[in-house]
Amino acid sequence: xxxxxxxxxxxxxxxxxxxxxxxxxxxxxxxxxxxxxxxxxxxxxxxxxxxxxxxxxxxxxxxxxxxxxxxxxxxxxxxxxxxxxxxxxxxxxxxxxxxxxxxxxxxxxxxxxxxxxxxxxxxxxxxxxxxxxxxxxxxxxxxxxxxxxxxxxxxxxxxxxxxxxxxxxxxxxxxxxxxxxxxxxxxxxxxxxxxxxxxxxxxxxxxxxxxxxxxxxxxxxxx
Amino acid sequence: xxxxxxxxxxxxxxxxxxxxxxxxxxxxxxxxxxxxxxxxxxxxxxxxxxxxxxxxxxxxxxxxxxxxxxxxxxxxxxxxxxxxxxxxxxxxxxxxxxxxxxxxxxxxxxxxxxxxxxxxxxxxxxxxxxxxxxxxxxxxxxxxxxxxxxxxxxxxxxxxxxxxxxxxxxxxxxxxxxxxxxxxxxxxxxxxxxxxx
Lengths: 223, 197
What we know:
The complex is a heterodimer of chains A (223) and B (197).
Chain A: H1 8-18, H2 23-30, H3 34-53, H4 64-68, H5 81-90, H6 95-104, H7 111-119, H8 127-137, H9 157-163, H10 166-179, H11 183-199, H12 206-221
Helix pairs in contact in A: 6-7, 9-11, 9-12, 10-11, 10-12
Chain B: H1 3-6, H2 20-38, H3 47-60, H4 69-90, H5 116-143, H6 145-156, H7 161-168, H8 172-192
């Protein structure tokens, strides 16, 4: 392999590098001499490093685990700036102190974030963070949230059908109990979880969505 | 206690009642990277299930007196993958994974790479490598956009060179030539930045 030339040996090496790991690749590797095998391993290492560097978590809006944990901000469970400011004031919780306490729980929050939540629309605050804020302040998450915003778009149709079922209502109650959160918050988290499934390109039926939620809730109930 | 472990406490979290969601947000990329790397080639894409199972188990019963949550998250993911491998082997499933997949009788004992200090060191190395490779790929895209495109499509997105050739309107062989040239350039960039592989 020299300069920009591309000979038959290079072509064979590239074909081998494209072959998935397994018996076929092993067989073809065995046909190479030691030097070629060493070259193959070196090039494969580069390819694998590139592959791995592109493999992080999915984007937040399509991450089912994040949705399950309440990390996806949702308009139906949004921090109410006015109520938040009043409750902070009533409990003597200053922005610097609140930010410090939240950081102590693992949240990456600065005092400037808290100021912003108090003075403008805090649509980026997730249900899980609202729960943490409520616990730090000493109130309930439901007292910190605004009335649900306008109804969502057409993408939510299957999730809407699922949320209208009695089975979903039962799951909400069980999830709320397992997580010691309000049914309102539990409903938001489970609904967001269903939406991430839709956004990941799958379009399951209502019963499939509910089966998936059932498995999740059952796993959390098992001690 | 291992002194290497003492040297890497997670600032602000130890003993402060950490929230699993907050910690997941912080360490999710590393978790997915480890799961996907260990399960590369798994046609059922079970890496996401593994991450979810790991998070659920930690969420349900968070461990106490944790020195490094990052290590705990990664250890839990690894254990779940080992369980999957064991279960697949026991059920005689055809689970074609990468070359590093250990045999059933190799699983067990202390040689699973689960020592917290080892896990942390491994995470640091992985993250450093990821940062260097990303920087090199950005440089490659700037200096050889065509080669970078072909390389990314085949090596990152796992498309075949035939698919990419059809899209680019060139022969398969031409795509492989682009890839070879791009990789060579990438290795030069990595070497120049001190990140040679």
